[in-house]
Amino acid sequence: FNLQLWNNYFHLAVAFITQDSLQLENFSHAKYNKIQNKYGDMRRLIGFAIRDMWYKLGQNKICFIPGMVGPILEMTLIPEVELRKATIPIFFDMMLCEYQRTGEFKKFENEIILKLDHEVEGGRGDEHYMQLFESILTECAKQHPGISSPVESFVSLVRGLLERLLDYRAVMSDESKDNRMSCTVNLL
């Protein structure tokens, strides 16, 4: 097992699918259709490959927690539904992996909260992501009763944080200082 090689693979693949020139939702409808018809959405293909390779790591997954939390989060925030559905379960696997090793998933939790703040502030994330994140992780937790309670608490925490971050992002363009201050207080 070569940690650096795997690390390079994951970082390169995430950098590929998050590059600006592949963010099809930013293009005009005509350009979007032309690219979709000619090439398809390459982000989905690479995202599925990342997911498949993650699950092939076996017991070595723990080596990538918390280091890969940020890049995986960045990938799951791409507004492509099938990509999100395929890659959000990686978060549960990360939690499960850390939980089995240490009895908790604090490293994962701290890293995702830190990175989520940065990503949403950068304009990524939406209401649909929040709902999908919650439903997928809750469903995964139901299949592992030993970890379901802490996962549900984590999901609730992230949902609250995401709601506040999205509100904060929305009011930053608002002229009312009171609205911005109220939102800032809620976020803190």
Write a brief structural summary.
By secondary structure, this protein is mostly helical. Helix content is 74%, strand content 0%.
Write out key terms for the chains shown:
DOCK2 protein, 10 helices, DOCK, 74% helix, 188 residues, mainly alpha
Describe the structure in your own words.
- By secondary structure, this protein is an all-alpha fold.
- The chain has one domain (3-174).
- The chain has helices spanning 3-17, 29-39, 42-55, 69-76, 81-87, 89-102, 106-121, 127-142, 145-171, 177-187.
- Helix 1 (3-17) packs antiparallel against helix 3 (42-55).
- The longest helix has 27 residues, at 145-171.
- It is globular and about 50 Å long.
- The protein starts with a helix and ends with a helix.
- The model has no long low-confidence stretch (mean pLDDT 90).
- This is DOCK2 protein.
- Residues 1-136 form the Dedicator of cytokinesis TPR repeats region domain.
